[in-house]
DNA sequence: ACCGTAGCACTAACGGTTAGCCTTTCGGAA
DNA sequence: TTCCGAAAGGCTAACCGTTAGTGCTACGGT
């Protein structure tokens, strides 16, 4: 599957990177709204249609790590030791993601996102997508006897934790705070007191 | 303040209603994407610019009750008896809102929303706005000793409850289920054991 | 060596949204 | 009562993201 980085794939990835890199640079230099798609395409030396072949929308240019982010969440739920409880595993991953996003180097990008309504909105719906994937991953785990609603609820709570922590004064502490609440919620949603 | 329903205000409200009504009718008849803004404006007999003076976007045409919805939530948190606990009050209001939205008469509209990506996304960000308002209302309540993060968390949970319940097979039961989790979360976020 | 397909380009257009500018009409102060 | 400022509405023209439609090129597997 992933064993064939043929020239084609490499070129495609290179084009994608070039577009995303150029776009991000321009956006950071002059502001998201002040830079048009046609301009990004020209600067990256590709056609507008090519740009949209790689990214579904202008906003998606900024969230290049979208898929990776989602995978990490899902793996945190599915790929854990059989006896490792779910919630702490989620907390650990969310913690890592928050740390990653609040790092010094990521500051300019997030500042751009936070100050651009279109990007904020896009990120919101992105999170919802991630929450749904996570919910599916949680529900897929056999022998955790929760309802679909409970799984979706916990998934949303976890994503909310990320969003809230990112905006909190002390992100790490905020993750712990929200996860204490999540832990409690998860407890009471437990497999209806197995007889 | 509200004591002057002058002719001006009435005309404005009438125009607004006429636009929203016309839009909704056309959308339901022929589908959201198949009806253009210019067409809605023409059918409502107003200029396109007038339409956008009343509604910030095409999507907003469908969510006319947006503000009312938000007010109900906020009032559920702020306008309750001094000794009435927060979470049950929220549950009651969310229950009512879910019942309202899953009513027979509202079915076509929600079916339209659920099958139109643009509307789904708009509703998501609308909910986030509502959650923020609710969080502010909760935090404003004196003597409930929670952190800002805890208030925002609970607010999001409540909004999530609405969203999840609306999509569940048994909405009312789903509200109760999620609110059992919320109640537990609210407990552990309690005012650090008041001395 | 060959063919199918995927990547990419170009042009044109569509549809939501806004800016600029003008007219009408109401509400309240003089 | 009169008059002015402001708000509502209108028209035109454009901007910008996004999407066909079409065709060319080059890579990858047979």
Share in β-strands of chain A: under 5%
* SSE series of chain A: HHHHHHHHH
Could you tell me which chain pair has the largest interface and how many residues each side has?
A-B, 31 and 31 residues
Q: What is the tally of beta strands of chain A?
A: 0
Helix run count of chain A? 9
What general form of chain A does the structure show?
Answer: globular
Helix content of chain A: over 70%
Seen as an oligomer or otherwise, the chain set is homodimer
- Give the low-confidence spans of chain A: none
Short description:
The structure is a homodimer of 195-residue chains. Chain A is 71% helix and 0% strand.
Question: Any overview of this molecule?
Answer:
Two copies of one chain form a homodimer. Chain A has 195 residues and is mainly α. Helix content of chain A is 71%, strand content 0%. The first copy, chain A, has helices at 7-30, 37-44, 48-54, 66-78, 86-101, 107-114, 117-140, 148-167, 171-188. The longest helix of chain A is centred in the N-terminal third of the chain and has 24 residues, at 7-30. The model of chain A has no long low-confidence stretch (mean pLDDT 92). At the A-B interface, α7, α8 and α9 of A face α7, α8 and α9 of B.
């Amino acid at each position: 599957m992933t064993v064939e980085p043929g020239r084609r794939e490499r070129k495609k990835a290179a084009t994608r990177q070039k577009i995303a890199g150029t776009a991000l640079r321009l956006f950071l230099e002059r502001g998201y709204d002040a830079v048009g798609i046609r301009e990004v395409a020209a600067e990256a030396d590709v056609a507008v249609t090519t740009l949209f072949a790689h990214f579904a929308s202008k906003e998606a240019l900024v969230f290049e790590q979208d898929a990776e982010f989602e995978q990490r969440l899902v793996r945190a739920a599915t790929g854990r030791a059989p006896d490792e409880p779910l919630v702490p595993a989620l907390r650990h991953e969310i913690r890592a993601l928050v740390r990653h996003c609040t790092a010094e180097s990521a500051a300019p990008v997030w500042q751009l996102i936070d100050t651009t309504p279109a990007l904020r909105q896009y990120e919101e719906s992105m999170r919802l997508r991630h929450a749904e994937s996570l919910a599916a991953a949680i529900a897929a785990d056999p022998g955790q006897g929760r309802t679909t609603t409970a799984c979706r609820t916990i998934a949303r709570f976890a994503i909310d934790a990320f969003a809230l922590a990112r905006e909190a004064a002390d992100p790490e502490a905020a993750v712990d705070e929200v996860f204490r609440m999540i832990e409690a919620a998860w407890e009471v949603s437990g497999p209806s007191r197995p007889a």
